[in-house]
From TrEMBL:
This is Thermosome subunit. PROSITE patterns: TCP1_1, TCP1_2, TCP1_3. The keyword Chaperone applies. Belongs to the TCP-1 chaperonin family. PANTHER family: CHAPERONIN (PTHR11353). It comes from Halorussus gelatinilyticus. Gene3D superfamilies: GroEL, GroEL-like equatorial domain, TCP-1-like chaperonin intermediate domain. The lineage of its organism: Archaea, Methanobacteriati, Methanobacteriota, Stenosarchaea group, Halobacteria. Pfam families: Cpn60_TCP1. GO terms for molecular function: ATP binding; ATP hydrolysis activity; ATP-dependent protein folding chaperone; unfolded protein binding. The keyword Chaperone applies. Keywords: ATP-binding, Chaperone, Nucleotide-binding.
Length: 520
């Protein structure tokens, strides 16, 4: 070889190694975390996100912020993936996970500067995470998950989010009612709760509909606007003249032949209405189009019909009513039909919506979200979706813990206590983990107008006196130390566990990277 270097990468490849690579990745992760830190808690600030096309989103929802930002750095993308995983698993706590991941990276950077090996940091963080999870499990409240407790859970998740002129308490009660409707012996069927947004009207007009809502409109003006005791068919067929499978030409030599051809076509188009009427169908939802003449015949038969129904809505209608989707009207049988107590068409501004209520097969419910503008209904939808997810998580995944930073302050203290029994440099990483957890109550204090250092010191002192039941309670525009349980600030234990697990995983993954090879 003669000692000459061997180049195995393309000339345009950019490579960053060692401390430079670690510093770049950690800085990117910290920057993303810092972008959402001020949104944490009930007094968190909002972010205005403007896309390159001019679309504006105003929100303090961590997952929405991170997914809307145009992030290119691969390490920063890992923090976004933390938020996505948190949202996917438990539906809330995305800001908590992102902020904790960023602080863990910040502490790791300090340890790296002190010549602590990345492997030691990773092992220390993993051990600290296990201590934290054990501490969280020990803080689960013994209280029964009745409607009052679940309402507090839902309200806690929505506090600080945009709910316009409707109170979080009213929305939380609707959320609990919705979840109770779809709760069965095996848990909550979360997919049976849908959120439908409708611009126009006051946010206080938001309501819970015991059924599903479709954006499809009746295909003919003479169709009934409301059908009670409705037999329902869901079909995936176009209502029109069927096209031949082969190219063919027909020669018409007389008026009689033309008339016969038109009569045959008319009979074919009438067959849709005749077949559905013979099957006893009152309402039909088609995922394809319905031509004008079949629509008129359906109207003459008193059948309410909807066309171009989305696949998602067709699936929801079928699930709620017990119907089976069929590919051809002529193949519809009794076993394929569903039933609903009422199908009615309601008009909002210039738009019709179909309400399918009292379905036979499932306790499906829909939260109809109203608001004066797109921004209002979008933020309400995000708030309600989070609330539905946390109530579901509380019921299905282990109960609730005290919120407002009370759980985090206990976890940090527990990790510090256990750190004393850990030997070697790994102890430094465990202590750094505990310090990182402090960022959560400290940020809550700061966002409520308290001095972050004084607030953290006072919280620790109060926590010792009350045996782990002290948090940062938002009162008006300020914050004070109080009992989260008495104040009704509760979080699902699953949200806390997932935040600690995903944040630790992301931070350790980034800290271990010492070589970045990028093709230009």
């Amino acid at each position: 070889m003669g000692g000459r270097p061997m180049f195995i990468l393309a000339d345009e490849t950019e490579r960053t190694q060692g401390r430079d690579a670690q510093s770049s990745n950690i800085s990117a992760g910290k920057a993303v975390s810092e972008a959402v830190r001020t949104t944490l808690g009930p007094r968190g600030m909002d972010k205005m996100l403007v896309t390159d096309t001019g679309d504006v989103t105003i929100t303090n929802d961590g997952a929405t912020i991170l997914n809307t930002m145009d992030i290119e750095h691969p390490a920063a993308q890992m923090i976004v993936e933390v938020a996505d995983a948190q949202e996917e698993e438990v539906g809330d706590g995305t800001t908590t996970a992102a902020v904790l991941a960023g602080e863990l990276l910040s502490k790791a950077e300090t340890l790296l500067d002190d010549d602590v090996h990345p492997t030691t940091i990773v092992e220390g963080y993993a051990e600290a995470r296990d201590i934290a999870l054990d501490a969280i499990d020990g803080l689960v409240l013994d209280e029964e998950l009745d409607d009052d407790v679940l309402t507090n859970v839902a309200q806690s998740s929505m506090t600080g989010k945009g709910t316009a002129d409707v109170t979080t308490e009213k929305l939380a009660e609707e959320v609990v009612s919705a979840v109770r409707h779809v709760e069965g012996e095996e848990g909550v069927v979360r997919d049976d709760v849908r959120v439908h947004t409708q611009t126009g009207g006051s946010s206080s007009a938001t309501e819970l509909v015991e059924g599903v809502i479709s954006e499809a409109e009746p295909v003919h003006a003479n169709m009934p606007r409301e059908v009670s005791d409705a037999t329902i068919a869901v079909v995936d067929e176009k209502f029109g003249v069927r096209e031949a499978n082969v190219d063919a030409e027909y020669s018409v030599d007389s008026v009689d032949q033309l008339t016969a051809a038109m009569d045959a076509e008319d009979r074919e188009l009438r067959e849709y209405a005749d077949a559905l009427s013979s099957a006893g169908v009152d309402v039909v939802f088609s995922t394809d189009s319905i031509d004008d003449r079949p629509a008129a015949y359906l109207a003459d038969a008193g059948i309410l019909a909807f066309e171009n129904v989305s696949d998602d809505e067709a699936r929801a209608v079928a699930s709620a009513t017990g119907a089976s989707r069929t590919s051809k009207v002529e193949d519809v049988e009794d076993a394929d039909l569903g039933w609903a107590e009422t199908v009615r068409v309601r008009t909002f501004a210039d738009e019709d919506l179909a309400f399918v209520e009292g379905g036979a097969a499932a306790e499906a419910v829909t939260m109809l979200v109203r608001g004066g503008t797109e921004h209002v209904v979008d933020e309400l939808e995000r708030a309600l979706s989070d609330a539905l997810d946390v109530v579901t998580a509380a019921l299905d995944f282990g109960g609730v813990v005290a919120g407002a930073g009370a759980t985090e302050i206990v976890v940090a203290d527990r990790v510090r206590e256990e750190a004393a029994s850990i030997e070697g440099r790994k102890q430094l990483a465990v202590e750094a983990f505990a310090d990182a957890v402090d960022v959560l109550p400290r940020t809550l204090a700061e966002n409520t107008g308290m001095d972050p250092i004084d607030g953290l010191v006072d919280l620790r002192a109060a926590n010792d006196e009350r045996e782990g039941r002290s948090g940062i309670i938002a009162t008006g525009q300020h914050g004070e130390i109080g009992d989260p349980v008495e104040s009704g600030v509760l979080d699902p234990v699953a949200v806390k566990r997932e935040a600690f697990e995903s944040a630790t995983e992301a931070a350790t993954m980034i800290a271990r990277i010492d070589d970045v090879i990028a093709a230009e």
